[in-house]
Amino acid sequence: KQWYQRRVRGSGHTIKTPESYIGVLETHITSKVVVITPDSSALVTFETLIPSTTDPLVATTDCFFARFVNSAMSLDKTAYHQRLRDSFHILQRTGNVRKATSKAELFIKECAITYTVFHNDYTQISTVIKVFLLGEMVTARSVISATLGQPVTIQVYFTARNLSEVSVTWERRGWQQSDWTAVSTKLLSYRMLTSDIDQNGVISTTLLIQSLVMSDVADYRVVVLISNQRQTSDTIKITLAETRTDPHIISVFEGSSANISVELVIEQKPITAERIHMERMKAYPVALSDYSTPGAFTLSYHQQNIMSSDSGNYKFRVQLDGGGSVTSENIVLKVKQRCRPPVTPVNTIMNKEDIDGSENYEYVVRCKSDDLVFLFDKQTRVVCDTKSGKYTTQNDLTPCTYQKQNI
User: Model-level pTM greater than 0.85?
Assistant: First the structure.
Protein backbone atom coordinates (compact mmCIF):
# COMPACT_ATOMS: atom_id res chain seq x y z
CA LYS A 1 0.00 0.00 0.00
CA GLN A 2 1.28 3.41 -0.90
CA TRP A 3 0.03 6.93 -0.06
CA TYR A 4 0.17 9.78 -2.46
CA GLN A 5 0.19 13.54 -1.52
CA ARG A 6 0.09 16.56 -3.72
CA ARG A 7 1.75 19.80 -2.60
CA VAL A 8 0.28 22.98 -4.13
CA ARG A 9 2.91 25.69 -4.44
CA GLY A 10 2.39 29.43 -4.60
CA SER A 11 -0.04 29.83 -1.76
CA GLY A 12 2.22 28.68 1.02
CA HIS A 13 -0.34 26.00 1.89
CA THR A 14 -0.19 22.22 1.53
CA ILE A 15 -3.30 20.39 0.36
CA LYS A 16 -3.52 16.66 1.16
CA THR A 17 -5.75 14.53 -1.13
CA PRO A 18 -7.77 11.57 0.20
CA GLU A 19 -5.79 8.39 0.65
CA SER A 20 -5.76 5.89 -2.20
CA TYR A 21 -3.82 2.72 -2.91
CA ILE A 22 -2.82 0.41 -5.71
CA GLY A 23 -3.94 -3.21 -5.26
CA VAL A 24 -2.53 -6.26 -7.06
CA LEU A 25 -4.86 -8.83 -8.64
CA GLU A 26 -3.49 -12.37 -8.43
CA THR A 27 -5.17 -15.57 -9.58
CA HIS A 28 -4.23 -19.22 -9.26
CA ILE A 29 -6.12 -22.20 -10.66
CA THR A 30 -5.45 -25.92 -10.38
CA SER A 31 -5.63 -26.44 -14.14
CA LYS A 32 -6.45 -24.40 -17.18
CA VAL A 33 -7.22 -27.54 -19.21
CA VAL A 34 -9.92 -29.82 -17.84
CA VAL A 35 -11.00 -33.22 -19.18
CA ILE A 36 -14.36 -34.74 -18.33
CA THR A 37 -16.04 -37.91 -19.57
CA PRO A 38 -19.72 -38.83 -19.69
CA ASP A 39 -19.24 -40.81 -16.46
CA SER A 40 -16.89 -38.51 -14.52
CA SER A 41 -16.56 -34.85 -13.57
CA ALA A 42 -13.60 -32.59 -12.81
CA LEU A 43 -12.90 -30.65 -9.61
CA VAL A 44 -11.30 -27.25 -10.15
CA THR A 45 -10.15 -24.80 -7.45
CA PHE A 46 -9.88 -21.10 -8.28
CA GLU A 47 -8.00 -18.80 -5.91
CA THR A 48 -7.57 -15.04 -6.23
CA LEU A 49 -5.98 -12.29 -4.15
CA ILE A 50 -7.89 -9.09 -4.68
CA PRO A 51 -8.39 -5.73 -2.94
CA SER A 52 -11.04 -5.79 -0.25
CA THR A 53 -13.28 -3.54 -2.29
CA THR A 54 -13.29 -5.78 -5.35
CA ASP A 55 -16.61 -7.06 -6.62
CA PRO A 56 -17.37 -10.81 -6.60
CA LEU A 57 -16.17 -13.12 -9.36
CA VAL A 58 -18.20 -13.46 -12.50
CA ALA A 59 -18.17 -16.66 -14.59
CA THR A 60 -19.25 -16.98 -18.20
CA THR A 61 -19.21 -20.04 -20.42
CA ASP A 62 -19.84 -21.11 -24.00
CA CYS A 63 -20.16 -24.78 -23.02
CA PHE A 64 -23.10 -26.46 -24.68
CA PHE A 65 -22.24 -29.88 -23.26
CA ALA A 66 -21.08 -29.09 -19.71
CA ARG A 67 -22.11 -27.16 -16.64
CA PHE A 68 -20.30 -26.17 -13.45
CA VAL A 69 -21.57 -26.30 -9.89
CA ASN A 70 -19.99 -24.40 -6.97
CA SER A 71 -19.19 -26.77 -4.15
CA ALA A 72 -17.21 -24.66 -1.65
CA MET A 73 -16.17 -21.06 -1.21
CA SER A 74 -14.03 -19.42 1.48
CA LEU A 75 -13.02 -15.81 1.99
CA ASP A 76 -10.13 -14.48 4.11
CA LYS A 77 -10.14 -10.71 4.58
CA THR A 78 -7.51 -8.27 5.82
CA ALA A 79 -7.58 -4.51 5.95
CA TYR A 80 -6.55 -4.09 2.39
CA HIS A 81 -7.13 -7.35 0.50
CA GLN A 82 -9.18 -10.52 0.51
CA ARG A 83 -8.28 -14.07 -0.60
CA LEU A 84 -11.13 -15.95 -2.23
CA ARG A 85 -11.09 -19.71 -2.80
CA ASP A 86 -13.81 -21.16 -4.97
CA SER A 87 -14.06 -24.88 -5.76
CA PHE A 88 -16.45 -26.11 -8.41
CA HIS A 89 -17.31 -29.23 -10.38
CA ILE A 90 -17.49 -29.40 -14.15
CA LEU A 91 -19.72 -32.20 -15.38
CA GLN A 92 -21.60 -33.19 -18.49
CA ARG A 93 -25.09 -31.86 -18.85
CA THR A 94 -27.77 -34.51 -18.74
CA GLY A 95 -30.50 -34.33 -21.33
CA ASN A 96 -29.01 -31.37 -23.21
CA VAL A 97 -26.60 -33.35 -25.37
CA ARG A 98 -27.80 -36.12 -27.65
CA LYS A 99 -25.86 -39.32 -27.17
CA ALA A 100 -23.91 -40.42 -30.22
CA THR A 101 -25.24 -43.60 -31.81
CA SER A 102 -22.69 -44.08 -34.61
CA LYS A 103 -19.04 -43.40 -35.34
CA ALA A 104 -20.04 -40.56 -37.68
CA GLU A 105 -21.57 -38.66 -34.73
CA LEU A 106 -18.43 -38.82 -32.58
CA PHE A 107 -16.08 -35.85 -32.25
CA ILE A 108 -14.09 -34.10 -29.50
CA LYS A 109 -16.27 -31.52 -27.77
CA GLU A 110 -14.48 -28.39 -26.55
CA CYS A 111 -15.59 -25.21 -24.77
CA ALA A 112 -14.34 -22.54 -22.37
CA ILE A 113 -15.26 -21.20 -18.92
CA THR A 114 -14.05 -17.66 -18.20
CA TYR A 115 -13.58 -16.42 -14.61
CA THR A 116 -13.42 -12.63 -14.39
CA VAL A 117 -12.71 -10.41 -11.36
CA PHE A 118 -13.93 -6.81 -11.65
CA HIS A 119 -12.23 -4.15 -9.51
CA ASN A 120 -13.74 -1.13 -11.20
CA ASP A 121 -14.63 0.02 -14.66
CA TYR A 122 -10.99 0.10 -15.68
CA THR A 123 -9.39 -2.88 -14.02
CA GLN A 124 -10.20 -6.56 -14.38
CA ILE A 125 -8.47 -9.90 -14.61
CA SER A 126 -9.78 -13.01 -16.42
CA THR A 127 -8.79 -16.65 -16.41
CA VAL A 128 -9.92 -19.02 -19.18
CA ILE A 129 -10.39 -22.74 -18.51
CA LYS A 130 -10.54 -25.05 -21.53
CA VAL A 131 -12.96 -27.95 -21.06
CA PHE A 132 -12.82 -31.11 -23.20
CA LEU A 133 -15.46 -33.82 -23.23
CA LEU A 134 -13.65 -37.05 -24.11
CA GLY A 135 -14.41 -40.73 -23.87
CA GLU A 136 -17.78 -40.69 -25.59
CA MET A 137 -18.28 -44.22 -26.84
CA VAL A 138 -20.18 -46.03 -29.57
CA THR A 139 -20.28 -49.82 -29.96
CA ALA A 140 -20.32 -51.11 -33.51
CA ARG A 141 -22.80 -53.83 -32.47
CA SER A 142 -24.48 -54.52 -29.15
CA VAL A 143 -25.35 -58.14 -30.02
CA ILE A 144 -23.21 -60.44 -32.16
CA SER A 145 -24.55 -63.77 -33.40
CA ALA A 146 -21.91 -66.30 -34.40
CA THR A 147 -21.34 -70.02 -34.84
CA LEU A 148 -18.67 -72.12 -33.14
CA GLY A 149 -15.33 -72.14 -34.93
CA GLN A 150 -16.05 -68.82 -36.62
CA PRO A 151 -13.86 -65.69 -36.11
CA VAL A 152 -15.60 -62.85 -34.28
CA THR A 153 -14.74 -59.13 -34.28
CA ILE A 154 -15.90 -56.76 -31.50
CA GLN A 155 -15.31 -53.05 -32.05
CA VAL A 156 -15.82 -49.89 -29.97
CA TYR A 157 -15.17 -46.25 -30.96
CA PHE A 158 -14.32 -43.45 -28.51
CA THR A 159 -12.92 -39.91 -28.51
CA ALA A 160 -9.54 -38.80 -27.15
CA ARG A 161 -6.91 -36.11 -27.79
CA ASN A 162 -3.90 -38.40 -28.19
CA LEU A 163 -2.93 -42.04 -27.71
CA SER A 164 -0.44 -41.27 -24.96
CA GLU A 165 -3.24 -40.34 -22.53
CA VAL A 166 -5.26 -43.48 -23.28
CA SER A 167 -5.22 -46.93 -21.64
CA VAL A 168 -7.56 -49.61 -23.02
CA THR A 169 -8.66 -52.84 -21.28
CA TRP A 170 -11.16 -55.39 -22.61
CA GLU A 171 -13.25 -57.26 -20.05
CA ARG A 172 -15.56 -60.27 -20.25
CA ARG A 173 -18.25 -61.80 -18.04
CA GLY A 174 -19.47 -65.36 -18.53
CA TRP A 175 -23.13 -66.29 -18.28
CA GLN A 176 -22.54 -67.95 -14.93
CA GLN A 177 -20.37 -65.10 -13.59
CA SER A 178 -21.24 -61.87 -11.82
CA ASP A 179 -17.82 -60.18 -11.95
CA TRP A 180 -15.97 -58.77 -14.95
CA THR A 181 -12.46 -60.08 -15.65
CA ALA A 182 -9.81 -58.68 -17.98
CA VAL A 183 -9.36 -60.44 -21.32
CA SER A 184 -5.78 -61.70 -21.61
CA THR A 185 -4.35 -60.95 -25.04
CA LYS A 186 -1.43 -63.27 -24.19
CA LEU A 187 -3.71 -66.12 -25.24
CA LEU A 188 -3.39 -66.96 -28.93
CA SER A 189 -7.17 -67.01 -29.32
CA TYR A 190 -7.44 -63.24 -28.65
CA ARG A 191 -5.95 -60.19 -30.34
CA MET A 192 -6.49 -56.53 -29.45
CA LEU A 193 -5.94 -53.68 -31.92
CA THR A 194 -6.09 -49.93 -31.33
CA SER A 195 -6.20 -47.52 -34.27
CA ASP A 196 -4.67 -44.09 -34.71
CA ILE A 197 -6.74 -40.97 -34.04
CA ASP A 198 -8.70 -39.65 -37.01
CA GLN A 199 -9.42 -36.01 -37.80
CA ASN A 200 -12.39 -35.96 -35.38
CA GLY A 201 -10.37 -37.35 -32.49
CA VAL A 202 -11.93 -40.82 -32.78
CA ILE A 203 -10.05 -44.00 -31.88
CA SER A 204 -11.26 -47.55 -32.49
CA THR A 205 -10.38 -50.49 -30.28
CA THR A 206 -10.97 -54.00 -31.61
CA LEU A 207 -11.02 -57.40 -29.94
CA LEU A 208 -10.52 -60.33 -32.34
CA ILE A 209 -11.57 -63.84 -31.32
CA GLN A 210 -9.73 -66.15 -33.70
CA SER A 211 -12.11 -69.12 -33.46
CA LEU A 212 -15.23 -68.99 -31.31
CA VAL A 213 -15.52 -71.70 -28.64
CA MET A 214 -18.33 -72.20 -26.17
CA SER A 215 -16.53 -70.34 -23.36
CA ASP A 216 -16.28 -67.25 -25.59
CA VAL A 217 -20.07 -66.90 -25.70
CA ALA A 218 -20.30 -64.18 -23.04
CA ASP A 219 -20.68 -60.45 -22.36
CA TYR A 220 -17.87 -58.06 -23.28
CA ARG A 221 -17.05 -54.40 -22.64
CA VAL A 222 -14.08 -52.05 -22.93
CA VAL A 223 -12.73 -49.85 -20.12
CA VAL A 224 -10.80 -46.75 -21.21
CA LEU A 225 -8.72 -44.51 -18.94
CA ILE A 226 -8.35 -41.03 -20.43
CA SER A 227 -6.26 -38.60 -18.37
CA ASN A 228 -7.02 -40.84 -15.35
CA GLN A 229 -10.75 -40.56 -16.05
CA ARG A 230 -12.49 -43.95 -16.34
CA GLN A 231 -15.06 -44.59 -19.03
CA THR A 232 -16.84 -47.91 -19.67
CA SER A 233 -18.60 -48.93 -22.85
CA ASP A 234 -22.04 -50.49 -23.11
CA THR A 235 -22.18 -54.27 -22.84
CA ILE A 236 -21.65 -56.26 -26.03
CA LYS A 237 -23.23 -59.70 -26.02
CA ILE A 238 -22.04 -62.65 -28.11
CA THR A 239 -24.83 -65.14 -28.72
CA LEU A 240 -24.63 -68.55 -30.33
CA ALA A 241 -26.51 -68.60 -33.60
CA GLU A 242 -28.61 -71.71 -34.20
CA THR A 243 -28.79 -73.37 -37.58
CA ARG A 244 -31.21 -76.19 -38.34
CA THR A 245 -31.03 -78.25 -41.48
CA ASP A 246 -33.54 -81.00 -42.14
CA PRO A 247 -32.51 -83.23 -43.78
CA HIS A 248 -28.73 -82.97 -43.66
CA ILE A 249 -28.47 -85.25 -46.72
CA ILE A 250 -30.54 -84.69 -49.85
CA SER A 251 -30.59 -87.41 -52.55
CA VAL A 252 -32.01 -86.66 -55.98
CA PHE A 253 -31.69 -88.16 -59.44
CA GLU A 254 -29.80 -86.34 -62.16
CA GLY A 255 -32.09 -84.15 -64.23
CA SER A 256 -34.60 -83.63 -61.42
CA SER A 257 -34.96 -80.66 -59.06
CA ALA A 258 -34.18 -80.19 -55.36
CA ASN A 259 -34.96 -77.74 -52.59
CA ILE A 260 -32.04 -76.96 -50.26
CA SER A 261 -32.99 -75.03 -47.14
CA VAL A 262 -31.74 -74.13 -43.68
CA GLU A 263 -33.35 -72.44 -40.66
CA LEU A 264 -31.30 -69.91 -38.67
CA VAL A 265 -32.00 -68.32 -35.27
CA ILE A 266 -30.02 -65.10 -34.86
CA GLU A 267 -30.24 -61.80 -32.94
CA GLN A 268 -29.17 -59.55 -35.82
CA LYS A 269 -30.76 -58.49 -39.06
CA PRO A 270 -29.35 -60.33 -42.12
CA ILE A 271 -28.12 -58.17 -44.99
CA THR A 272 -27.11 -60.68 -47.67
CA ALA A 273 -27.13 -64.47 -48.02
CA GLU A 274 -25.31 -66.91 -50.24
CA ARG A 275 -25.14 -70.64 -50.91
CA ILE A 276 -21.60 -72.02 -51.01
CA HIS A 277 -20.60 -75.16 -52.97
CA MET A 278 -17.67 -76.28 -50.80
CA GLU A 279 -15.98 -78.49 -53.42
CA ARG A 280 -15.99 -75.71 -55.98
CA MET A 281 -15.45 -72.98 -53.34
CA LYS A 282 -17.99 -70.93 -55.24
CA ALA A 283 -20.77 -68.82 -53.75
CA TYR A 284 -24.21 -68.17 -55.23
CA PRO A 285 -26.51 -65.38 -53.97
CA VAL A 286 -29.74 -66.39 -52.23
CA ALA A 287 -32.77 -64.11 -51.93
CA LEU A 288 -33.70 -63.05 -48.40
CA SER A 289 -37.28 -63.08 -47.21
CA ASP A 290 -38.70 -60.32 -44.99
CA TYR A 291 -36.96 -60.20 -41.64
CA SER A 292 -37.82 -57.45 -39.17
CA THR A 293 -37.28 -58.90 -35.68
CA PRO A 294 -34.69 -61.25 -34.17
CA GLY A 295 -35.62 -64.89 -34.27
CA ALA A 296 -35.87 -67.78 -36.71
CA PHE A 297 -36.02 -67.46 -40.47
CA THR A 298 -35.50 -69.89 -43.35
CA LEU A 299 -33.12 -69.66 -46.28
CA SER A 300 -34.16 -71.77 -49.24
CA TYR A 301 -32.77 -72.44 -52.70
CA HIS A 302 -34.62 -74.37 -55.41
CA GLN A 303 -32.46 -75.85 -58.16
CA GLN A 304 -33.81 -77.44 -61.32
CA ASN A 305 -32.22 -79.87 -63.76
CA ILE A 306 -29.54 -81.01 -61.34
CA MET A 307 -26.39 -82.43 -62.88
CA SER A 308 -23.86 -84.86 -61.40
CA SER A 309 -21.39 -81.97 -61.07
CA ASP A 310 -23.79 -80.32 -58.59
CA SER A 311 -23.23 -83.05 -56.01
CA GLY A 312 -21.21 -82.23 -52.92
CA ASN A 313 -21.32 -80.28 -49.69
CA TYR A 314 -23.23 -77.00 -49.32
CA LYS A 315 -23.40 -74.31 -46.65
CA PHE A 316 -25.39 -71.11 -46.29
CA ARG A 317 -23.59 -67.96 -45.14
CA VAL A 318 -25.42 -64.83 -43.96
CA GLN A 319 -23.80 -61.39 -43.63
CA LEU A 320 -25.27 -59.54 -40.64
CA ASP A 321 -26.14 -55.92 -40.05
CA GLY A 322 -23.19 -54.10 -38.44
CA GLY A 323 -20.67 -56.70 -39.62
CA GLY A 324 -19.99 -60.37 -38.94
CA SER A 325 -21.56 -63.43 -40.48
CA VAL A 326 -23.19 -66.75 -39.63
CA THR A 327 -22.49 -70.00 -41.46
CA SER A 328 -24.90 -72.93 -41.41
CA GLU A 329 -24.14 -76.58 -40.83
CA ASN A 330 -23.11 -78.74 -43.75
CA ILE A 331 -25.76 -80.03 -46.19
CA VAL A 332 -24.86 -82.93 -48.49
CA LEU A 333 -26.42 -83.13 -51.95
CA LYS A 334 -26.20 -86.59 -53.52
CA VAL A 335 -26.94 -86.83 -57.23
CA LYS A 336 -28.01 -90.34 -58.18
CA GLN A 337 -27.71 -91.94 -61.62
CA ARG A 338 -30.52 -93.87 -63.26
CA CYS A 339 -29.92 -97.15 -65.08
CA ARG A 340 -31.29 -97.70 -68.56
CA PRO A 341 -34.59 -99.58 -68.07
CA PRO A 342 -34.27 -103.25 -69.21
CA VAL A 343 -36.43 -104.74 -71.96
CA THR A 344 -39.48 -106.48 -70.56
CA PRO A 345 -39.00 -110.24 -71.10
CA VAL A 346 -41.60 -112.30 -72.97
CA ASN A 347 -44.71 -113.31 -71.01
CA THR A 348 -43.76 -111.17 -67.99
CA ILE A 349 -44.85 -108.06 -66.15
CA MET A 350 -41.94 -105.87 -64.99
CA ASN A 351 -42.09 -103.42 -62.05
CA LYS A 352 -39.60 -100.90 -60.66
CA GLU A 353 -39.28 -101.11 -56.86
CA ASP A 354 -37.31 -99.26 -54.18
CA ILE A 355 -35.02 -101.15 -51.85
CA ASP A 356 -35.56 -100.44 -48.16
CA GLY A 357 -32.54 -98.79 -46.51
CA SER A 358 -30.71 -98.30 -49.79
CA GLU A 359 -30.21 -95.58 -52.41
CA ASN A 360 -30.50 -98.27 -55.09
CA TYR A 361 -33.61 -99.63 -56.76
CA GLU A 362 -34.48 -102.82 -58.69
CA TYR A 363 -36.58 -104.18 -61.55
CA VAL A 364 -38.63 -107.29 -60.71
CA VAL A 365 -40.56 -109.54 -63.15
CA ARG A 366 -43.41 -111.96 -62.65
CA CYS A 367 -45.20 -114.18 -65.07
CA LYS A 368 -48.39 -112.94 -66.69
CA SER A 369 -50.46 -115.95 -65.72
CA ASP A 370 -50.43 -118.95 -63.44
CA ASP A 371 -49.80 -121.41 -66.25
CA LEU A 372 -46.48 -119.73 -67.00
CA VAL A 373 -43.18 -120.39 -65.23
CA PHE A 374 -39.79 -118.63 -65.12
CA LEU A 375 -37.30 -119.93 -67.57
CA PHE A 376 -34.42 -119.02 -65.21
CA ASP A 377 -35.50 -118.92 -61.57
CA LYS A 378 -32.49 -116.91 -60.39
CA GLN A 379 -32.89 -114.10 -62.90
CA THR A 380 -36.17 -112.58 -61.74
CA ARG A 381 -34.64 -109.24 -60.57
CA VAL A 382 -31.81 -106.83 -61.40
CA VAL A 383 -30.46 -104.12 -59.06
CA CYS A 384 -29.48 -100.64 -60.29
CA ASP A 385 -26.46 -99.07 -58.53
CA THR A 386 -27.41 -95.35 -58.46
CA LYS A 387 -23.82 -94.26 -57.81
CA SER A 388 -22.66 -95.54 -61.19
CA GLY A 389 -25.93 -95.86 -63.10
CA LYS A 390 -25.14 -99.51 -63.88
CA TYR A 391 -26.69 -102.83 -62.89
CA THR A 392 -24.95 -104.93 -60.28
CA THR A 393 -25.18 -108.09 -62.50
CA GLN A 394 -24.78 -108.66 -66.22
CA ASN A 395 -27.57 -111.27 -66.44
CA ASP A 396 -30.74 -110.43 -68.30
CA LEU A 397 -34.16 -110.85 -66.72
CA THR A 398 -35.74 -114.19 -67.34
CA PRO A 399 -38.75 -114.68 -69.60
CA CYS A 400 -41.69 -116.92 -68.72
CA THR A 401 -42.72 -120.00 -70.62
CA TYR A 402 -45.61 -122.47 -70.54
CA GLN A 403 -45.23 -125.44 -68.27
CA LYS A 404 -44.40 -128.75 -69.96
CA GLN A 405 -47.28 -131.21 -69.81
CA ASN A 406 -46.66 -134.85 -68.90
CA ILE A 407 -47.60 -137.35 -71.66
Answer: no
